[in-house]
Each structure stands twice: as structure tokens, then as C-alpha cells.
From TrEMBL:
The chain holds residues 622 to 834 of 1143 of the full protein. Modular enzyme with four functionally distinct domains. The isolated Hcy-binding domain catalyzes methyl transfer from free methylcobalamin to homocysteine. The Hcy-binding domain in association with the pterin-binding domain catalyzes the methylation of cob(I)alamin by methyltetrahydrofolate and the methylation of homocysteine. The B12-binding domain binds the cofactor. The AdoMet activation domain binds S-adenosyl-L-methionine. Under aerobic conditions cob(I)alamin can be converted to inactive cob(II)alamin. Residues 87-213 form the B12-binding domain. It comes from the Bacteria. Catalyzes the transfer of a methyl group from methyl-cobalamin to homocysteine, yielding enzyme-bound cob(I)alamin and methionine. Subsequently, remethylates the cofactor using methyltetrahydrofolate. This is Methionine synthase. It comes from Paenibacillus zeirhizosphaerae.
Length: 213
């Protein structure tokens, strides 16, 4: 197998044997983010496909998730960090009912490496908790992540609850369950502030930078 194929295979097979040396070899050719977005994400796509076809069980997908997390943790130290002062404060949460956090945590890494203070509320976060954190932290942006179809609906509910609480800070949403169109047509009308869709972590950073400027 080529190096790229091996990297994808670690994720698909949920195996870590040889992972770190291969990640280090990949770092001589690619940036940390290119390794994540390229071979590691390709592996995750394949995991999603196999899971969908009932060829993998949840326990196996968890092992794949572990490989992804270990890889991201290892690659993080090699990512470029900007030395700027704090550009803004961003709350991040995976919405109520959803446990997927690899994407959200990647967004945290990218944003915090680029001058943002992140308040990561974790997974399955109910709207009340987001409202409370927003008030405590006086955050500039509220970031919501969700991967399940029902999480897209939960984002609508969350936006409604934030609005009812009198909050109109910009919301940034992302995750495989969403599209730009859904964000525009279904979430935005329920909220008084801006609602922005980020297709990936770098897009999230671009949007945050635009908002802060
Ligand atoms: Co789940 N799962 N899962 N899963 N899982 C999906 C999402 C699924 C598509 C797989 C499939 O069937 N093909 C499917 C959803 C179906 C649907 O609703 N349409 C699914 C399902 C069904 C489930 C369960 C219901 C399975 C079950 O129990 N029967 C269950 C749900 C439990 C729950 O949430 N209540 C479940 C559980 C799990 C695990 C726990 C085993 C594990 C998650 C581990 C973890 O996160 N700690 C897991 C995994 C790993 C996946 C897949 C395979 C991979 C997700 C992932 O980590 N991708 C996934 C299939 C797939 O996506 N191909 C699947 C890598 C990650 C870096 O990408 O999160 O998309 P992603 O994030 C990207 C962008 O989306 C964006 O930036 C990131 C980086 O570029 N982004 C943002 C994300 N959030 C953002 C926020 C932003 C900005 C950008 O601003 C705030």
C-alpha cells in the first residue's frame, strides 16, 4: 500500500500499529491539515459507507474514531499557530442528541491555533446550556455542530431558543447533516442574528475572521 492508502486503512480498520511513524512520514510531504482532510478523511468516508451498509458495528466505528482522534492529537503540534492576541471568543457545541465530536474538536484546534478563545461545551448540549454559557462568557460567536439528520432539526430548535432568550450573536453551523441551503432556508428565518454555514474547519476560520473584522 502507498503511504496515503495506509493512512486511510488505519482509520478504516481502527488500528494504530504503525500509525505515528506513518503520520511523521506524511508530514515530510504534506501539511497536518492536508493529511487530515486527505487520507484520514477518505478513511472516515469509507467507515461511514461501511457502517451504512451494516458492514461495521458501532464498536468498530468507535475504534476508527479513536484513530482519527489520536492522529489529530499527534498532528496538532505541527500546525501553524498565530501569535496574535485574542481575536474573539467562540462557543462550540455539538447539539442536543448528537455525540459526534471529531469535527467540532477539529474546528476548536483550528480556531484556537488562530487566535480565538474557545469555550467547548462538548456533546449533546441542550439549548439552555448554550444560553447560559453565552451569558457567562459574553462570546462573540456561537458555533453549533451536528452530524445526524435530526441534529439539523435540533439546530432550528436551538436557534429558536436563543432568539427567545433575546440572543442575536452570530451563529456558525457545520457538520455533515447540514447544507448551505438548509441553513439559509430553515435556520436563518428562525433567528434574528446572522447564521453562517461552514463546510469545514478552515471555512469556519475564514468566517470567524470575516465576522471579527
Ligand atoms: Co455516527 N453516524 N452514529 N458515529 N458516524 C454518521 C454521522 C453517519 C452518516 C454514518 C452512516 O450511517 N453513514 C450516520 C448519520 C445518519 C443520519 O442521521 N443521516 C451516523 C449514525 C446513524 C450514528 C448512530 C445513530 C449509530 C447508532 O448508534 N446506531 C450513533 C449516533 C449517536 C448519537 O449521536 N446520538 C453514531 C455514533 C457514532 C460513533 C460514536 C461510533 C462515532 C463518533 C465518535 C465521535 O465523534 N467521538 C461515529 C462516527 C465516527 C461516524 C462517521 C463514520 C464519521 C464522523 C466523523 O468523525 N467524521 C459518520 C459518517 C461520515 O461522516 N462519513 C457517522 C470526521 C470529521 C472530521 O468530519 O464531523 O463532518 P465532520 O466535521 C467536518 C465538517 O463537517 C465540519 O468541519 C469538520 C472538519 O472539516 N464541521 C464544522 C463539523 N462541525 C462543524 C462546526 C462548525 C464548522 C464546521 O462551526 C461551528
Amino acid at each position: 500500500l502507498t503511504l496515503e492508502e495506509r493512512l486511510a486503512t488505519y482509520v478504516v480498520e481502527g488500528s494504530k500499529e504503525g500509525l505515528i511513524p506513518d503520520l511523521d512520514e506524511a508530514l515530510t510531504k504534506y501539511s497536518p491539515l492536508a493529511i487530515i482532510n486527505g487520507p484520514l478523511m477518505a478513511g472516515m468516508e469509507e467507515v461511514g459507507r461501511l457502517f451504512n451498509n451494516n458492514e461495521l458495528i458501532v464498536a468498530e466505528v468507535l475504534q476508527s474514531a479513536e484513530v482519527m482522534k489520536t492522529s489529530v492529537a499527534h498532528l496538532e503540534q505541527f500546525m501553524e499557530k498565530s501569535e496574535t492576541s485574542v481575536k474573539g471568543k467562540i462557543i462550540l457545541a455539538t447539539v442536543k442528541g448528537d455525540v459526534h465530536d471529531i469535527g467540532k474538536n477539529l474546528v476548536e484546534i483550528i480556531l484556537s491555533n488562530n487566535g480565538y478563545r474557545i469555550i467547548n461545551l462538548g456533546i449533546k448540549v441542550p439549548p439552555e446550556r448554550i444560553i447560559e454559557a453565552y451569558r457567562e462568557e459574553k462570546a462573540d460567536v456561537i458555533g453549533l455542530s451536528g452530524l445526524l439528520v435530526k441534529s439539523a432539526q435540533q439546530m432550528i430548535i436551538t436557534a429558536q431558543d436563543l432568539k427567545t432568550a433575546g440572543i442575536d450573536a452570530p451563529i456558525m453551523v457545520g457538520g455533515a447533516a447540514l447544507t448551505r441551503k438548509f441553513t439559509k432556508n430553515r435556520i436563518r428565518p428562525e433567528y434574528d442574528g446572522l447564521v453562517l454555514y461552514a463546510k469545514d474547519a478552515m471555512d469556519g476560520l475564514d468566517l470567524a475572521n470575516k465576522l471579527m473584522n
